[in-house]
Write a structure and sequence with these properties.
Elements: E1 6-13, H1 18-29, E2 32-35, E3 44-48, E4 51-58, E5 69-75, H2 79-88, E6 92-100, E7 104-110, E8 116-122, E9 144-150, H3 154-165, E10 168-174, E11 180-186, E12 189-195, E13 204-210, H4 214-223, E14 227-234, E15 240-245, E16 251-256
Parallel strand pairs: 1-4, 5-8, 9-12, 13-16
Antiparallel strand pairs: 1-5, 2-3, 3-4, 6-7, 7-8, 9-13, 10-11, 11-12, 14-15, 15-16
Length: 262
């Protein structure tokens, strides 16, 4: 039912920096950080308004040469089937499907252009929670509001994700020398955009988290040790965006009104 919806955000931060990263995002988004209590593995959970929003962990040993980063997970009906489809479409499987107790079945993959992402087949719930429950809610601050792919071949990337998740093309936005910013939809709602690499040194997925006041968020982020890389910039619809690097090096963006709306 929710196949293809962004469903989880996961930070892989520098070794020894997990507590510092949690304190930073608490300051920025008001997330409350706690240990998930996973046996033999330190994994922290970020909550907002009582609901889980994101996971935070130290960068895995097999990613030691990769800077800290945010990974986006997508809901799938069948994790094993989706992983097999990724292989058939030219992508790679870095972590084969495996169970997470009391959560569901996950895998870590990459698209044919080398961009990493995750999939999660949640445990069945009756009744099934509404689509706007959980980490992805485009109407709420401190939740995932938008996702953006920067790719070496955004046309081929769209075809890959459309086949995998059923996404559809929405409005193309002419960005001049930067090329086309292609909006895409899930279940009839625009959830993100795809573009060429732009100023990004590597292809990647970028999460946008909602804020009530981009100017105030910039102040919280920079005073907390983060770096403003671009913005604030107004986007179609009247919202503003800004792009950052956190103190450990992971990139993320925020979106919302320029000033506090309340």
């Amino acid at each position: 039912m929710y196949h293809g919806k962004p469903c989880w955000f996961e930070l892989s931060t520098a070794k020894g920096a997990l507590d510092d990263a949690g304190a930073f995002y608490d300051k920025v988004f008001g997330w409350k950080i706690s240990d998930a209590g996973m046996p033999g593995f330190t994994y922290h959970l970020a909550h907002y308004d009582g609901g889980p929003i994101a996971g935070l962990m130290e960068r895995p040993e097999d990613c030691a040469d990769v800077p800290p980063f945010w990974m986006i997970y997508f809901d799938v009906d069948d994790a094993d089937g989706a992983a097999a489809k990724v292989k058939a479409l030219g992508g790679k499987v870095f972590r084969e499907p495996a169970d997470i107790p009391e959560t569901g079945r996950f895998a870590v993959l990459s698209d044919p252009q080398g961009v990493g992402f995750g999939i999660l087949q949640p445990l069945g719930m009756d009744p099934k929670p509404p689509a706007d429950a959980g980490p992805w809610n485009q109407q709420k601050e401190s939740h995932g509001n938008w996702i953006e792919l920067m790719s070496t071949d955004p046309g081929a990337a769209f075809d890959f994700y459309a086949e995998l998740f059923g996404w559809t093309k929405s409005t193309p936005v002419d960005m001049g020398p930067m090329g086309t910013y292609q909006l895409f939809s899930w279940n009839g709602a625009d959830i993100g955009g795809m573009m060429g690499l732009g100023n990004s040194p590597v292809p990647n997925w970028l999460p946008y988290f909602g804020v009530n006041g981009v100017d105030a968020a910039i102040e919280r982020i920079t005073s907390g040790g983060g770096t403003l890389l671009h913005g604030p910039v107004e986007v179609p619809g009247g919202a503003f965006i800004a792009f950052f690097r956190d103190p450990q090096g992971a990139h993320f963006s925020v979106v919302g009104p320029k000033e506090n709306a309340s």
